[in-house]
């Protein structure tokens, strides 16, 4: 089942390429494949999940692949990865709908890259063999390169090159570190393997562990992104088409945070322990710095991009503190950020489609012209702020409460960063929705049926998680307790 979930979008991608000369059929086929993948993922929660032999793992697949090299085709599903592949399938389907009218050239090629990227992200969240994980990690990079480079805006070439240069630098270092870990373990035991289960717990010298962990950390920090290796993200978001921004913010950034949780911290517990002050500091700087820069932005899409960096800084703090409460909040916040920030990018894209501008100086009075659109805009902005009763509040309060127990100073500073977030998002709402219209736009229409089909599922997720987060937290609790109590669980006890 896990293999089907990964490779069904890839099959759809190849079909989209074959249908390049029939745009309408290509769109419907791509949407159908995305919905089928979403239904397959959803079906796992209705009696399809069984407790696996590896504790918190619910489904496991393991097959021989390159036996002589110790490489296996190994996949695993637990509560954390289930939530993330569900988010991937949902945003994949919505991205097809978002692009329905926006992408008019090379439609088949666009959907080929979109579905291929979905397959790559699914693989990252499910791979338990580090070689397989690396292949899927690289597979994400290629489609996004073309999506921004071909269908992006005026500055797309610069943004694409910057994105690729940052990503390749981190990925190559991770590859070197991965090979080093493989060789060191093989020399010590006589058994060469890339298995996460077998590599976890393998003792390394202090220097080797620190160097290998640093390489992994840099690759994942670039993807999150963490200050100061974050500068590629605002440019990529600003120039990407709306669907590209949705996948980038909703999914690709989460692969970095997920990889820290799943691979880097459990594999290198001592180095991870030493990195805690650095990670917390980087998260706090990112939270404040990105929020301050967001406040100065006039381009709405760029503002949301910096907002995304700030929210990911809080997630990094939750992971770095490393106790079951903060990690639960961080994982939940990955889901929340994927929902809310994707919705904000979608709304900005819809407004750009109507007004042909994203300049805040030209907005104002949108509520009087598009009340339903404005209601959605207000809902998702309030969610980003962390309004009680909406989804982001739950994740943020878990991170802050959990961090206060062992790092009260960091928790209080993080709370101050959230206040800055409140200011610039309220400014965005004020200047966009209220007041007198600053410009006359010839064509302003409210939400269409297709746009409602995009926004309603995201709005329901915001409300359901906000009012009743129990089932989501229960699903992730087992694997989080297992991870935190294993590799570097002792970090929670540090002063």
Mean pLDDT: 91
Beta-strand level of the residues, as a percent range? under 5%
Major sheet characteristics: 2 strands, antiparallel
Shape: globular
Task: Please estimate the helix content.
Answer: over 70%
The helix/strand order is: HHEEHHHHHHHHHHHHHHHHH
- How would you write the strand order of the largest sheet? 1-2
Radius of gyration: 22 Å
> What structural class do you assign from the helix and strand content?
mainly alpha
Provide the low-confidence segments as ranges.
50-54, 487-495
Distance from first to last alpha carbon: 44 Å
Number of strands: 2
Count, helices: 19
Explain what you see.
- It is a single chain.
- This protein is mainly α and 495 residues long.
- It has a domain at 271-495.
- It is 76% helix and 3% strand.
- The protein is built from 19 helices and two strands.
- A two-stranded antiparallel ribbon has the order 1-2.
- Helix 3 (79-102) packs antiparallel against helix 10 (242-267).
- The longest helix is centred in the middle third of the chain and has 34 residues, at 156-189.
- The protein is globular, with a radius of gyration of 22 Å.
- Residues 50-54 and 487-495 have low confidence and may be disordered.
Layout of strands and helices, then pairs:
Elements: H1 2-18, H2 23-48, E1 59-66, E2 71-77, H3 79-102, H4 107-126, H5 130-151, H6 156-189, H7 196-199, H8 206-223, H9 232-239, H10 242-267, H11 269-295, H12 300-321, H13 324-355, H14 366-369, H15 371-385, H16 391-406, H17 408-433, H18 449-467, H19 470-484
Antiparallel strand pairs: 1-2
Helix pairs in contact: 1-2, 1-4, 2-3, 2-4, 3-4, 3-10, 3-13, 4-5, 4-10, 5-6, 5-10, 6-8, 6-9, 8-10, 9-12, 10-12, 10-13, 11-12, 11-17, 12-13, 12-16, 12-17, 13-15, 13-16, 13-18, 13-19, 15-17, 16-17, 16-18
């Amino acid at each position: 089942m896990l293999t089907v979930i990964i490779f069904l979008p890839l099959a759809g991608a190849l079909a989209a390429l074959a249908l390049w000369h029939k745009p309408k059929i290509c769109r419907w086929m791509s949407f159908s494949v995305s919905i089928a993948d979403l239904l397959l993922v959803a079906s796992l929660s209705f009696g399809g999940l069984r407790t696996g032999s590896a504790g918190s793992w619910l489904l496991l697949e393991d097959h021989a692949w390159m036996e002589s090299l110790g490489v296996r085709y190994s996949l695993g599903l637990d509560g954390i990865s289930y939530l993330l592949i569900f988010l991937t399938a949902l945003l994949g389907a919505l991205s097809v709908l978002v692009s329905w009218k926006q992408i008019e050239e090379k439609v088949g090629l666009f959907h080929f890259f979109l579905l291929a990227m979905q397959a790559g992200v699914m693989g990252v969240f499910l791979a338990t063999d580090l070689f397989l994980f690396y292949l899927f990690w690289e597979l994400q990079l290629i489609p996004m390169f073309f999506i921004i480079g071909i269908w992006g805006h005026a500055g797309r070439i610069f943004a694409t090159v910057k994105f690729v240069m940052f990503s390749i630098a981190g990925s190559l270092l991770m590859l070197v570190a991965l090979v080093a870990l493989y060789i060191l373990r093989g020399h010590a035991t006589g058994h060469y393997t890339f298995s996460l289960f077998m590599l976890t717990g393998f003792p390394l010298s202090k220097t080797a562990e620190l160097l290998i962990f640093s390489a992994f950390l840099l690759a994942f920090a670039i993807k999150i992104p963490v200050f100061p290796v974050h500068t590629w993200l605002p440019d990529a978001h600003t120039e990407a088409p709306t669907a590209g921004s949705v996948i980038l913010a909703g999914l690709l950034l989460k692969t970095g945070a997920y990889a820290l949780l799943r691979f880097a911290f459990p594999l290198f517990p001592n180095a991870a322990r030493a990195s805690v002050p650095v990670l917390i500091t980087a998260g706090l700087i990112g939270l404040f710095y990105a929020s301050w820069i967001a406040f100065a932005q006039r381009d709405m899409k760029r503002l949301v991009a910096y907002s995304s960096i700030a929210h990911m800084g809080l997630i990094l703090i939750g992971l770095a503190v490393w106790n079951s409460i903060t990690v639960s909040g961080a994982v939940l916040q990955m889901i929340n950020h994927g929902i809310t920030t994707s919705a904000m990018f979608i709304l900005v894209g819809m407004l750009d489609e109507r007004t042909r501008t994203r300049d805040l100086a030209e907005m104002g009075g949108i509520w009087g012209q598009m009340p339903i659109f404005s209601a959605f805009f207000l809902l998702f902005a309030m969610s980003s702020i962390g309004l009680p009763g909406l989804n982001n509040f739950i994740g943020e309060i878990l991170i802050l409460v959990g961090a206060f127990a062992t790092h009260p100073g960091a928790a209080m500073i993080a709370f101050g960063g959230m206040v800055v977030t409140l200011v610039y998002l309220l400014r965005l709402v004020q200047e966009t929705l209220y007041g007198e219209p600053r410009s006359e736009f010839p064509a302003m229409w409210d939400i269409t049926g297709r746009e409602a089909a995009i926004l309603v599922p995201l709005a329901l997720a915001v409300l359901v998680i906000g009012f009743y987060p129990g089932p989501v937290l229960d699903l992730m609790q087992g694997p989080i307790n297992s991870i935190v109590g294993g590799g570097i669980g002792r970090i929670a006890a540090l002063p």
